[in-house]
Design goal:
two-stranded antiparallel sheet, flat, 2 helices, alpha+beta
Amino acid sequence: RYATAFGSGPHQCIGLRLVLGNAGGGAAAHVLRTFYEAGIQPDRSREARLDGSLQYIYAEYPVIFRNPRRHPVG
């Protein structure tokens, strides 16, 4: 059901329910929904930076929020 991201059996990730919730709407979905409501967009005035490893992982990805009244950070 979740591929290998959360593992299975006795070594299954304990954060599975926190992230996905019981019906697939856990913390990750809530955070993404809040960011989209706040109008998150890439900040084109600053360049994103990869972490330098062999994997495609960002060390920094600047964003801006277009709707300050719904800003998720407060």
